[in-house]
Design goal:
Two copies of one chain form a homodimer.
Chain A: H1 3-31, H2 44-51, H3 55-65, H4 69-77, H5 81-90, H6 93-102, H7 105-113, H8 117-125, H9 129-135, H10 141-150, H11 153-164, H12 170-173, E1 180-181, H13 187-196, E2 206-210, E3 216-221, H14 222-227, H15 234-237, H16 251-261, E4 265-269, E5 275-280, H17 281-299, H18 311-317, H19 319-337, H20 340-345, H21 348-376, H22 382-415, H23 418-448, H24 457-480
Parallel strand pairs in A: 1-2
Antiparallel strand pairs in A: 2-3, 4-5
Chain lengths: 482, 482
Amino acid sequence: MSDVEKKHTQSSIDTVRRSLEDIKATLGKYQHIDGFLGDQVASRRDLGDEFIQEKNLIGLQDKLDAMHPADIAAILEQMPLDERLLVWKLVRSNLDGDVLLEASDAVRQTLIADMDVQELLAATEQLDADEIADLAPDLPEGVIADVFRSLSETERLQLKAALSYPEDTVGALMDFEMVTVREDVSLDVVLRYLRRLEKLPPNTDKLFVVDRREILKGALSISDLIVTSPETKVCDVMSTAVVNFNPDQEAESAAHAFERYDLVSAPVVDAHNRIVGRMTITDIVDYIREDAEQESLGKVGLRDEDLFSSVWKSAKNRWLWLAVNLGTAFFASRVIGLFEDSIEQLVALAALMPIVAAIAGNSGNQTVTLIVRALAFEEINKNNAKGLLRKELAIALVNGVLWGSVAGFFAWLLYGNIALGLVMLSAMLLNLIVGAAVGMLVPLFLQKMGRDPAIGSSVLLTFSTDSMGFLIFLGMATLFLV
Amino acid sequence: MSDVEKKHTQSSIDTVRRSLEDIKATLGKYQHIDGFLGDQVASRRDLGDEFIQEKNLIGLQDKLDAMHPADIAAILEQMPLDERLLVWKLVRSNLDGDVLLEASDAVRQTLIADMDVQELLAATEQLDADEIADLAPDLPEGVIADVFRSLSETERLQLKAALSYPEDTVGALMDFEMVTVREDVSLDVVLRYLRRLEKLPPNTDKLFVVDRREILKGALSISDLIVTSPETKVCDVMSTAVVNFNPDQEAESAAHAFERYDLVSAPVVDAHNRIVGRMTITDIVDYIREDAEQESLGKVGLRDEDLFSSVWKSAKNRWLWLAVNLGTAFFASRVIGLFEDSIEQLVALAALMPIVAAIAGNSGNQTVTLIVRALAFEEINKNNAKGLLRKELAIALVNGVLWGSVAGFFAWLLYGNIALGLVMLSAMLLNLIVGAAVGMLVPLFLQKMGRDPAIGSSVLLTFSTDSMGFLIFLGMATLFLV
């Protein structure tokens, strides 16, 4: 967006907020209540019907009508639940489907919870089969059945197909808006055929060339179609090396291919090379962002959380992670408990032991991050894994000697006990090596188990470096100092 | 990629590896040394000239010639330095520029370090001004001056422009391959004009409509160009509401706009609305990935690291982070040191105190993650920040009572001391609240200081929850238990 447009969006949001204040005041006058929103307003149509005459409301509705569905979704996401539902009631129903598609999962659920069956059916009517499939997990069972009945035969097959693929596969992300042509016709015929369509599907940078059985033969780029003389035959200008995907392939690998080969669209084919759908860069970009988000949330044990959901709901979203960490922390605490006698005799151990655990955790997390990234880019294989492990261990050795010496020196300085300093050095060195080994092996192991190595590696790593750190440091202290 | 294609790529890599073994054997025969790579081989041309007759080498070179530059870059990234430079020497020089562009920063530097001035000049000759600008930070000073002299007047201006914008702005990411048309001509004229170009620039989904002074008037989508009858004038079918950017705008906001409005390309205009460049989805996808990567690396204090760089170089890359964390860990350790008397009297404190620190750190990191995400999507503003802080504090209260009770109960059970359990509960509750406050305020503060809130927030948070955790728990214990 240019600054001008950005200002424009910002000012739309401000307008909505101001209009909301006006509407609240107005509605307040009508209803003579302060907190008029919530259970009092049963259906968004009720509100619409009742106050459709009201000038401010119409003003706001006009603003909303002129906005892109993605902008409306963004505004809704920024609003607390009560304001959100008020504005949602004002969005014209022909935009409902698109706004639902654009909203985040958590916010979408709050919007759907506010709609009745008729509204939901009306919203889905505007959508393609692949878009309905995206909404399906959030729709009530009964509504899906109704939607299914309202579709044409082709759309039903498409919806069934889209729903049959697991999340994060190409099949779940693909759409069905592919434009196909035959190889034996001239470009002129293709152009006349396209002119009969009112509009090309979004992201159409190439047409898919298929035979009578819909088997993929190649692709005709729109660029070639335009610059080549119209008498040329499709087969003379099409490219036959087309990057294509299978519906049950992982979306992640499709994303890599889109990035690597700078694709805008690509055909999806079945086992017989028959074209069944299309992937576009739009879906890929959405996937990449969502994947990155889920990963960063997953690392701290969260699922997608509406910024404005209730305290109770948010608290519950955070429990599993806290419970797991409380468990590992108690385990580490029991390790310390084994050495209570030593600590009683040399209380400096209590102050120094968290350092040994923390630095190895930090260093190990660096290893985890690098290995997880290398796994994502398929840079690790059987041939180089051993060499990488050796390298990480060597780095841990270097850093262990260096930072262990620093820490040991300060321990000596603080407590005037050189033996304590030496134990500190040795324990840090050993625990950094534990961190490197665990930081390298845990992501590889999770990957092998078919799990996302980005999620869970850190918890397991910290668990190891904490417990082992306490064990090594306090164990050595017990042997040599007490 | 379909599985077939994937297999194909994998087999290319295997072929290269096998060929490498062969080449190594062959070169070993010629040079009678084992580790023949390194200083012995001065220039990649030498190697090429000397062994160009060798069958295996030619076989490998043919394979490389048939590959996409991005695939070559990926293969190079997977190889230890010696193998990497050998293969790099075999890449034909007309592909050098593209491979350099596709390689990661760290790997690119190893490749450039291996090239002489002539080779670098030859490599840049194939590239556009915006691509040269991408390589510029890694090129030796002298080479840039030479490259500059070799360019045309227009390209020089473009290169200067591209280099003048800071990293991560639209200006640094834009290209100059925009196709512009006038609004008063017919589509037929546009089509004839395009046919004279041999090929449209990649990602051309729309033509930019400008007037005589290059001022942006609108955009003509290729889709409309194709489906509309050729007699129509451009101004009758072009859209005038074109999402556009300024060159000094942040790339992040452009990325959001591309995602939100599903763009493939968009014009970049100066303050006078004159078109100066073009953003494409390809650049945006690269930016998003790189940004996400840098963020995940930055969180653990790393810059981009070549998987196969030397141990010494990798170790140094990790130092700053370890030093910072060692500093904060020592500070926390000094806090514990303040209470050594209490610990001596009640050694259970030593075993329990890490739990109080850890859980608040985990819980605070959940808050940090949610707030950083909300900041990235501009979901936090003056109106809702206070409400969000209240919510996070309320969640901390709920979780503090719940998990504090669990932890307090186990402490009571383990040590048979109910007062200790109660201190545990209270300390965990208070420290969770510290974690929530710091986890919310630190990212907001970093953002306000113009820094990336994703980087650094966690360190500051852990520092607070560790130090405060020890202070609160040991302080309360000293007051009530000892």
